[in-house]
TrEMBL record:
Region annotation (Disordered) ranges: 311-338
Name of the protein this chain belongs to: DUF3068 domain-containing protein
InterPro entries per the UniProt record, alphabetical: PorA (IPR021424)
Keywords in alphabetical order: Membrane, Transmembrane, Transmembrane helix
Superkingdom field: Bacteria
Residues that span the membrane, as ranges: 285-310
Pfam entry (one): PorA
């Protein structure tokens, strides 16, 4: 029985040894992908912010703003190509003292490669309904399970152009060691407004008359990313938006805020990243390592059991003088009665 048992253990060991690279390099590449279906709600808040109240024609200073960002995956929008994920993002910014009155609503749709997270042009990708925008670089995610300490091109939806995310250090966020990236979106003309504003609001005096204006935006963004997964766990968006006359002589701040992800949502994002990291670790490290360790143990035990020396044979009985084996019978006792 020893040899068949040993051969079975050797066969199992060889199977698990071949299974390890299969899981690590084949299964992992098909499991470590962005989900098609995603629902995520994140809140950012800013204190001592300012915005222009168009209804009252007044700049409101020292206000607290809330930005609610909602991300939804559209599982049917990828036109049957499951290598591409399509996510819709909507951000609603409002004054906390008047939450029913939105200050700004921005929406966009991105399509991206589920394995690399790089943006692709398909599936109705757009910014505020404008599908002529050509996106490039990265959008909502960093490279999946492969974030490096280097710069990445990120597409800014407000200015509709890419701007580099620079690696800026390592920092702890809610107990998670995250990579910090910073992005400067340069002052950019983002819209030619249809409305005309009084010259007095633009610093042109009471006799300035109503003037046509264009909107300009500048931003300093900071993102903290889980390097194990590529999931951002905290955002900081320091934005400044102004309107200017075409000749540049009149100008006015219409929005200024330093928005930061609230701690509760930071913790939720860290929990999401931990769950994703566990799944990635299972297929990339834990299962392959366990398979290799188990295979080596089975190969070792199988070799010893199947091909090692067997149990020693029982000792042979000594040969008697009469040529037979076994103990000699005791000599016949003498008859003392004779």
């Amino acid at each position: 029985m020893r040899r068949p048992v040993g051969l079975v253990l050797i066969a199992l060991g060889a199977f698990f040894l071949s299974l390890a690279p299969l899981v690590r390099f084949y299964v992992a590449d098909r499991v470590v992908v962005a989900p098609l279906n995603r629902y995520q709600l994140t809140r950012l808040e800013a204190t001592n912010a300012a915005y222009f109240d168009a209804a009252a024609l007044k700049l409101r200073n020292g206000v607290s703003l809330t930005a609610v960002n909602t991300v939804r995956g559209d599982v049917r929008a990828n036109e049957g190509n499951d290598d591409v994920a399509v996510w819709d993002s909507t951000t609603n910014i409002y004054d906390k003292s008047d939450p029913d009155k939105p200050i700004q609503i921005q929406g966009y749709r991105i399509a991206f490669d589920r394995r690399t997270a790089e943006l692709v042009d398909c599936c109705g990708a757009n910014v505020d309904g404008d599908d002529s925008v050509r996106m490039s670089g990265y959008g909502l995610l960093f490279p999946l399970a492969d974030v490096r300490k280097r710069d990445y091109p990120f597409f800014d939806m407000t200015t509709r152009q890419p701007a580099p995310m620079h690696f800026n250090g390592v920092e702890e966020v809610q107990g998670l060691t995250a990579y910090r990236f910073t992005q400067h979106v340069p002052l950019t003309r983002t819209a030619a407004l249809d409305t005309r504003l009084p010259g007095r609001l633009l610093g042109l005096g009471a006799k300035g008359g109503d003037r046509k204006v264009d909107r300009y935006t500048e931003a300093y963004n900071t993102v903290w990313v889980d390097p194990r997964t590529g999931i951002p766990v905290k955002h900081r968006q320091n934005i400044r938006s102004t309107v200017r006359t075409p000749d540049g002589k009149g100008r006015m701040v219409v929005a200024q805020a330093d928005l930061v992800t609230v701690p509760k949502d930071q913790r939720a994002l860290v929990d999401m990243a931990d769950g994703a990291a566990l799944k990635i670790g299972m297929v990339r490290l834990y299962i392959p390592a366990a398979a290799v360790l188990g295979a080596l143990m089975m190969l070792l035990v199988g070799s010893v059991v199947g091909f090692g020396p067997g149990a020693p044979p029982p000792p042979r009985a000594p040969r008697r003088p009469d040529g037979r084996f076994g103990d000699a019978p005791p000599p016949a006792s003498a008859d003392l009665t004779r």
